[in-house]
Amino acid sequence: MEKLGFTVHHVYGLTEVYGPLTYCIWQPGHEELSLHDRAQFLSRQGVPHPTAEDATIMDISMTPMRADGVTIGELMLRGNTVMKGYLKNSKATEASFAGGWFHSGDLGVRHPDSYLEIKDRSKDIIISGGENISSIELEDVLYKHPAVQAASVVAKYDEKWGETPCAFIELKSGKTATAEEIIAYCRQHVAHYKVPRHVVFEELPKTSTGKVQKFVLRQMAKKV
Question: Total structural domains in the chain?
Answer without folding.
Answer: 2
